[in-house]
Amino acid sequence: MQKKLLILAIIILLTISVVGLLLFGLKGEGYGRGYGSDNPSIRSLSIVLFIIPLILAVGIIGYAAIFPSIEPTKFQTEKSNSMSITEEKKSILDAILRILDEDEKKVIKVLADSPNKAMLQKDIRWKTGLSRVKTHRVLYRLAKRGLITVEKHYNTNMIKLAEWLT
């Protein structure tokens, strides 16, 4: 898309430049008064119409040569890649675990080991051995970072591992 716009801009600028060149070359004789060497303001306008678009066209061509567009790569979705996707998710989870503190690691590991990647807040508290307040604070930090989602579930919360981690 960007390449097409650059080509269209170059064509328009070169067309304007050619029109300016034609106006610059026209004389007052035979074409009526007002063009060419008889009127200095029209003559200077024709020079401007020739030079400025030509400089812009050369600038666009130089820009396209110096900064070529980067084509996005297409992801292959084959059955053989489904195994690599799970491995990629594990490597993402491992990378996230490296930057978390100990209490946050405990919570993420407990959620990752649960069958449906979701648990009640009170069960997380029981499995991690954290206090009620500490569990709440850790879950708040993780939710703020987008690693977990929290949904009300009666008088407790259902904690789920974020979609992009599962």
Description:
This protein has 166 residues and is mainly alpha-helical. It has two domains: 2-66; 89-165, Orthogonal Bundle (Arc Repressor Mutant, subunit A), CATH 1.10.10.10. It is built from six helices and three strands; from the N terminus they run ααααβααββ. It has helices at residues 2-25, 40-66, 79-99, 102-113, 121-128, 132-145; strands at residues 118-120, 148-153, 156-161. The model is unreliable at 30-36 (pLDDT under 50).
Question: SSE layout and pairings?
Answer:
Blueprint (H helix, E strand, L loop, with lengths): L1 H24 L14 H27 L12 H21 L2 H12 L4 E3 H8 L3 H14 L2 E6 L2 E6 L5
Antiparallel strand pairs: 1-3, 2-3
Helix pairs in contact: 1-2
